[in-house]
Every structure is written in C-alpha cells, then in structure tokens.
UniProtKB/TrEMBL annotation:
Domain Zn(2)-C6 fungal-type stretches: 41-70
Recorded superkingdom: Eukaryota
A Gene Ontology biological process term: DNA-templated transcription
UniProt cross-references to Pfam families, sorted A to Z: Fungal_trans, Zn_clus
SMART domains assigned: Fungal_trans, GAL4
Single GO molecular function: zinc ion binding
PROSITE patterns assigned: ZN2_CY6_FUNGAL_1, ZN2_CY6_FUNGAL_2
InterPro entries: Fungal_SecMet_Regulators, XnlR_reg_dom, Zn2-C6_fun-type_DNA-bd_sf, Zn2Cys6_DnaBD
Coiled coil: 79-106, 764-791
One GO cellular component term noted in the UniProt record for this chain: nucleus
Taxonomic source organism: Sporothrix schenckii (strain ATCC 58251 / de Perez 2211183)
Keyword Transcription appears in the UniProt entry: yes
Chain spans, region Disordered: 1-39, 110-148, 254-294
Protein name: Zn(2)-C6 fungal-type domain-containing protein
Length: 880
C-alpha cells in the first residue's frame, strides 16, 4: 500500500487501534491569542501586578466591572503620539465649531429663544446651570424670570476657573468669536473736519453716546436745532432729538489746525462761522487734490527736512521703552538696529529711505516732541504747533515707499501698516487708522499669519509672527469697538496661531534685552495678558451687539432704549461678561500690577489691583520706565474697556433704571470712569511716566464724557425723590461730580502737549455747568415739594434761604491726596439769598453755546484736518 494514502499507519500500530484512539480523543482547545503589550498599564493592573492590554477599557477592568484609568485622556509618551493626539483634537474642535455655527444659524431662523431652549443667568450667580434664575432686588424681593440665551455665557456653566488661571485658560473658556455682524440698531453719521462727507459710527462708539447726550440736552433745555440735512441713521431714532445733529457737525471746531499754525486764541474759542455749501465743496476739492502724492520721491526729498544721524538715534531710543515694550512688540530690536545701520552711507551724512524706519521715527517724534519745552519743540515743528502730527514728513515718505510693496508685501510691509494705524490713531485720524488696519489685516492673510507657523521655522521667527498676529488682533479689536464697526480679523478655531509665549527663554530670543520680571515672566508677559484682555472684551462685545443674543428683537426705527425689557436682558449680558473681566484681572501676575498705598486701607477699600475702590496707587519709584508703563497702561486699558462695556446701559429714560441690573451696570460704568480719572490725575501730577501719551488722553476723554452722560441720566432718574429718602444715588453722584473736576485738571495738564486737550477742557467745563444747573433745578424742586408737604405752604424767601445743593463737595480731593481749588467744587447756580443773583443763569445757556459745545465734543476724537498730513505744497510731497 502506498504510504501516502490516508489508510496508511505508522509502523508498529494496527489500523483498528488507531481508529479507536482517534474516535475517543477530544478536540484540542483553541490557542490563546498573543497579548498585545502596552507601554503603560492602567492603574488597577499596575497596582495588582497583572498584565494589561491595549483595549479601552482593558479586559481585566471590563471583567471586574470597575473604572479603568485608560478611559481618561491619554498622555502622549512620544512625539509621534503627541502629534497624532493634536491632529485628532484639532479635527474634533473643527467639527464642533461647525456644529455650533450650524446650530446658531438654525436658531437665528427659528425665532426668539424660549424657556425650553435657553438657560438663565442670575445676577447673584451668573453661571447658574438651572432652568431659570431669579434676580434679587436691593430690597430682597424677587423679580420676574428673564430667560437669556446660553450663548451669552463667556464660560461653561459647570465650573468657574480658579484664581490662578492663566491667560491661555481664560482664552480657551471665552465664547467663540464667530464674527457675527452687528445688528446695527444704532449709529450716527458724523462729518469729519472741514469735509461735507460723513462716516458711520456704531452704537458702541463714543460718537453715538455723545449724540444721545446731545439729544437729551436738546430736550431738557428745549433747544431747537436747525432743520435739514441727512438724518437717515442711528440718532434719528431718539424721540427727544427735535432735529438732526448732523447739521451741527458742519461747523468747523475751534482751534482747527489747517495749512499752518493756528491763531493763538483759536484753541480756546467756542464760536465759529458756519461755512457755506460752496466753501465746503471747495474744501472737499482741496482734500481730493492734495491728499494724493503728485511728485516722485526724488523730487519730494529735495524739499524735505529730516533729522540728522544723532537726532534720529535720540528719538529711536524712545521707541523701545514706549511703543515696543508697552504696546505692540511687532519688531525684532536686534534685526531693526542692524537694518538701520545698513541704511547709512559711508560718509554718515545721508540715510537711504526705509518705510519701516520712517514710521518708527514718526511715532518717536510724536511722543518725544510732546514732552519737550516749547522752545525745543519749535525747532522740530516748523509749520504746526500740534505735537499730534509731529513726524508727519516721515509718515508721508513711509506711505510713498509702501506703494511699491503693496503687490508683493513682506513682513516689513505688514509691520509698517500696523504702526501707521497707531500713528494715525494718535493723531485723531480715526478713519485713516481704520483703513490702515484693514490693509494690515489683508496683508497678514497674504503672508499666512492666520495659520500656525511652519514646523521648519525657527523659534525666533515663529514667535515674532505670532506676536505680530496678536498685535494686529488687538489693534483691530480696539478700532472696531472704539468706532462701533464690524471686526475685520477673526479667530479661525483650530488654525489660529497659538497664544504668544512669554517665557524668559523666548524673551531672550526676541532681540530685546529687557530684564526678567521673576517667576518665569518677561517683558513679553504684557503682550500675553494684553491680548487675553481683548479676547474677553471681544467676546462681551459680540454677545452684546449681535443680533441673535436677545430674545426681544429691536425693530427697524427703534433702539435698545425703546424696550426696557430688552435693555434689562442686555444688562444681564454685560454683568455676565463683567465677571469674565474680573476673572482676567485676578489672573494677572503681581509683576504686571500696581499696588495700592497701605493695601487700600487708607481709602477704605480692599487694595486689590484693578479695583474701583478709589485707593491711591503706590507707584514703585525705582522700577524701569517700561515696567511702570506696562503696569499702568494695562490697568487703564482694563478700566477703559469696562467703561465701554457698561456705557450703553446709561439710559436717559426714567423707566429704564427701575430694573436693578440696568442700574448696576450704570453704576459700574461710573465707578470705572472715576477710577480711570483718578489714576490718570495722580500719574500726570506726580510722575512723567505717561507724559505725551496720546492714547491715555483719549481714554480720559472717553471717561469724562461718560461721566457727564451719567450725571445727566442720574438727574433724570432722581426727579421727584426727596433728599430725606435713603437712595444710593447720592454717593456715586458726588464721586462723579468730583471726578469731572479732576478730568478738567487732567485736560489742563494734557493741554501743554496736545492742542486738542484745551478744547476738551472747554467742552467739559461747559457741560459741567449745564449738569450743575439741572442738578440745582432738581434740588430746588425737591425742597419745595418737601416743604409743601410738611408745612402745607411756605414762603418763597424761607425756601430760598434754606436752599442747598443735593451733593456739595466744595473741595474735591485728588487720588494723591492733594486738594483742588475750592472753585472746582459744585457751585450753587441758584440764588443763595432773596437779593442775590445766581452766578450762572439759564439765560447764559443759549442754543448757540450748546451747539458749539456739542460740536467740539464730536470733534475732539477727530481733531486734526487732513491737510495736517497732506498740506498743499505746490506738488512737493514732503515739503515742510
């Protein structure tokens, strides 16, 4: 038999025995699969010293039915695993963002929010996760349940961040900036100086608040504005505005600096002649013909005067301790100095033109000349005595050089346009600054700065690109919120560049040699917390002004103040995001904060940085100048953004303040404006840290006009309230009155450097008199009513003899403890006796004075004429 056949048997065995053994044997058990080894066992398997596998949860934990630590977030143990985990998280975030945007779009089309689909935010606990919350009034009673969309929440409702949270933690919790356009339920068209053209400013702008204040004064004093003109937007919605405010804006403000030095008396004058239509058209033609370069760069250089090498070195040194360290670190100092040295010829007489060097010198001249004595200043400012446009010839040459780089922009081109936006903003050219920022945003996208830096780029280069991106983000946010216009730059989720690194190691590679601040903090930490602050501010701004954030729609032709319920909902939105601001303030390290004298005990406050308790600052005398500026500017910016957050809740309607959240927001706005004024007054009167800093003046102007509007609103709310009543208006009103006097003193100090500050002081003085007049009228009516109720009737002479102001503070005290002159107190504008005439009477508050005053108020933010930058110089672009 063939051995290969199936019936063949091994030698020595019979066929029967083999068959019997085979039939009685069991099938062999399946072979156990080889265990897949893991790099790290789960906690339970490691504790019991048994083998673990790669399944999640592992087989042992799944069998015993317990928790497996492998279910938690895995920690990458190698670089490839870390990259894979990052890619997975990015895809997940992108997917979630798409779902969130789709849900918001669907909810916007679905109509108003309902209680079933929205959460509530309470005043006491803004992060409550219950279905509804009840806000408690000061008397302890409950108010009506108000449902607020959950999308207004800046943080998740499950937990708050700890006080030690970093800016990156805060940024990760801030509501997503989806770039939703404004609802545009308010706005005002304002004509720029000496031009018939008008531009639009949104509801968050100071222009719009001034228009509301002017409308209230128009109604209170019963002044009739001239008829006619365009009134198609924004302020036309105010019922009390009898005519268009735009017509008043055609008057050229006093002290307007055009075509040369202004007359000495024009800076304080308040009366100007209204230009005719022909004159306005002629002025517009001049603007169109002189604002464009006609001559070549070579021809322009022949008629220009520039600084010498020694002078340029002096002014360039000012940049690194001011704009570089305390605003936007968009330059590499070492690379810039090397580039600057390469521009000088061998003889050392002339320098080759450079757009980047020119705009840096323009900024340095802007801040440096303002701190000089008038005699030295005149040697540098030949045809204009306003330091706001010092260095304008460098700005013009920079613009001419940039025209050659627009088609193929470089990183230097982007840096130039960012710094041009800063220069124009300091010179009160608001629309040109906005346009320069818009150009910078497009160039940033052209250069790919909106993406994470490439992996093959050095740390020094990548960190510089990140800093430039976030500086542009701050500039765009600042301009958008200041002017009330849509943002141009938005965060793109997973592709957004990371937060700037502020470690000492990265600071050592930045090209600057500033000393560390301790605790691994560096001079770059200011930029990190500065950008985090604007992320919080933008989240609040988008939530407040977006069209889908309120369940009560604002119909066309109406404003927020026409709906008390909608105003209360917006007040709760502002309070919620106010907590986000406070949480950011708690995260700032001590190295970037300014301490209070005695820990704030002398002023009765808690002494915490960024507080509004009125405690004086304890400015460290031996700290470097750049550190002191970082600390002060960070706190002042915080208060300025809080003012802008709460200011829309200042309402001139009596019914609006009946809601506790609205009143709380208005008081918070006043407290931040008072604190900002006190800080600026103390710093300017005792130090030179902020001397010549134009942006601080603009913040002070913003706070002063806000305080004036707050006092007018409080006058409206306290009508008919007796002095004997225990009302909370009196303390805050007294502090606001004293802060207005401090603001006038601040403008007088700024007036040594900026011509516009003299006009600002005149505006606030005039408005202060009107506020005091209304307060005295209100006080007199209250006392007459109280006397009539107590005695039935009283003699007019007795009432006049007992007359006294509601809030008397004849000698307000500055933040540094120094007393201002008694004349700065709130004067008694009414009769103090039966035979005495009032010092300021109603007859002195005529329509022309009010109109010119509000005109000047509008023009403070757009003070200079375009000819200050592009004068008619017979075709020579860079002539003096």
């Amino acid at each position: 038999m063939d051995s290969s056949s199936p019936s063949s048997h091994p030698p020595g065995l019979s066929g029967a025995s083999v068959t019997s053994d085979t039939s009685s044997a069991q099938p062999p058990p399946p072979k156990r699969a080889k265990r897949r080894q893991v790099s790290r066992a789960c906690d339970w398997c490691r504790q019991h010293r048994i083998k673990c596998d790669t399944s999640v949860p592992c087989a042992n934990c799944k069998t015993r039915g317990g928790h497996c630590s492998s279910e938690d977030a895995l920690n990458a143990t190698s670089l490839p695993e870390a990259h894979r985990e990052i890619d997975r998280l990015r895809r997940q975030v992108a997917q979630l963002e798409q779902e969130l945007n789709a849900a918001r779009l669907a909810s916007r089309h679905a109509g108003p929010y309902t209680a079933a689909s929205a959460g509530s935010v309470s005043e006491a606990s803004p992060y409550s996760d219950g279905p509804e919350s009840t806000a408690a009034t000061p008397t302890g009673t409950a108010t009506t349940h108000i449902t607020v969309p959950p999308s207004i929440m800046p943080f998740p409702s499950d937990a708050l961040l700890p006080p030690s949270a970093t800016p990156r933690d805060i940024a990760s919790r801030v509501a997503t900036d989806t770039g939703i356009a404004h609802a545009f339920w308010g706005g005002v068209h304002v004509g720029t100086a000496r031009s018939p053209n008008k531009t639009w400013y949104g509801p968050s702008s100071l222009f719009y608040f001034i228009s509301r204040t002017a409308a209230y004064l128009d109604d209170s004093f019963q002044f009739q504005h001239p008829d006619g003109g365009d009134n198609s937007s924004g302020h036309a919605n105010h019922k009390s505005n009898k005519a268009s405010i735009d017509n008043l804006l055609d008057v050229n403000p006093a002290g307007m600096l055009v075509d040369g030095p202004a007359p000495p008396s024009s800076s304080t004058s308040t009366a100007r002649t209204r230009p005719t239509d022909a004159q306005k058209q002629a002025q517009a033609h001049v603007h169109d013909s002189t604002s464009r370069p006609h001559a070549s760069i070579q021809d322009a250089l022949a008629g220009a005067r520039f600084l010498t090498l020694t002078q340029e070195e002096y002014f360039l040194d000012l940049y690194w301790h001011s704009y570089h360290a305390a605003l936007f670190p968009v330059l590499d100092e070492a690379d810039f100095r090397q580039h600057y040295r390469s521009l000088w010829a061998t003889s050392g007489q002339d320098r080759a033109p450079s757009a980047l060097v020119d705009i840096v010198l323009a900024l340095c001249l802007q801040i440096g000349v303002s701190t000089m004595v008038p005699g030295m200043r005149q040697k540098l400012i030949v045809d204009n005595d306003d330091t706001s446009v010092a260095g304008r010839w460098y700005y013009r040459r920079c613009q001419a050089l940039l025209e050659y780089e627009l088609e193929s922009p470089s990183l230097s081109t982007l840096q130039c346009h960012i710094l041009c936006g800063v220069y124009l903003c300091n010179g009160t050219f608001q629309n040109m600054s906005d346009s320069s920022c818009a150009l910078a945003v497009r160039e940033a996208h052209m250069l790919g700065l909106h993406l994470a830096p490439p992996a093959d780029m050095t740390v020094r280069q990548s960190e510089l690109r990140i800093r430039i991106w976030w500086a542009l983000y701050v500039l765009d946010s600042k301009i958008g919120m200041k002017l009330g216009r849509p943002f141009l730059l938005h965060l793109a989720g997973a592709t957004t560049p990371p937060q700037p690194d502020d470690s000492v190691a990265v600071a050592a590679l930045s090209g600057s040699s500033f000393a560390p601040l301790g605790d691994n903090r560096s001079w770059l930490s200011f930029h990190l917390y500065h950008s985090a602050l604007f992320q919080v501010a933008r989240a609040a701004h988008v939530a407040f002004y977006s069209g889908n954030q309120t369940p009560l729609p604002v119909r066309p032709g109406q404003t927020l103040w026409d709906h008390p319920e909608a105003l209360e909902v917006h007040a709760r939105i502002a309070l919620t995001h106010g907590d986000a601001f406070a949480q950011w303030a708690r995260s700032v390290p001590p190295a970037l904060t300014t301490a209070r004298v005695g820990g704030g005990a002398r002023a009765g406050g808690d002494g915490r940085p960024f507080s509004t308790d009125g405690s004086p600052l304890d400015i460290e005398p031996f700290a470097p100048l750049w550190v002191q500026r970082q600390r002060l500017l960070l706190e002042l910016m915080y208060h300025n953004l809080c003012i802008n957050l709460y200011r829309p809740l200042i309402s001139f309607e009596t019914s609006a303040f009946s809601a506790a959240p609205v009143r709380q927001c208005a008081d918070a706005c006043a407290h931040h404006a008072i604190t900002l004024t006190q800080i600026v007054h103390q710093v300017l009167s005792t130090t030179s840290i902020l001397a010549g800093w134009s942006e601080v003046f603009q913040w002070q102007w913003n706070a002063a006009m806000t305080l004036v509007g707050f006092l007018l609103a409080m006058h409206e709310q306290t009508r008919g309230i007796h002095r004997s009543d225990d009302i909370c208006e009196v303390p805050i009103v007294c502090k606001a009155h004293a802060a207005v006097e401090l603001a006038i003193a601040v403008f007088d100090m700024f007036g040594r450097n900026f011509a516009v500050a003299t006009s600002a002081a005149a505006v606030i003085r005039t408005l202060r008199d009107k506020v005091n007049y209304l307060a005295q009228q209100n006080a007199r009516a209250q006392r007459q009513q109280a006397q009539a109720q107590a005695q039935g009737h009283a003699g007019q002479a007795a009432i006049q003899a007992e007359a006294s102001p509601v809030c008397v503070q004849s000698q307000p005290v500055a933040m540094n403890g120094a007393a201002l002159p008694p004349a700065n107190g709130i004067p008694d504008l009414l009769n103090t006796g039966p035979d005495k005439q009032p010092e300021v009477t109603f007859s002195g508050l005529d329509a022309s004075v009010l109109q010119d005053t509000m005109l000047m108020a509008f023009d403070v933010d757009q003070w200079l004429d375009l000819n200050a930058l592009w004068p008619d110089s017979e075709g020579v672009l860079f002539s003096m």
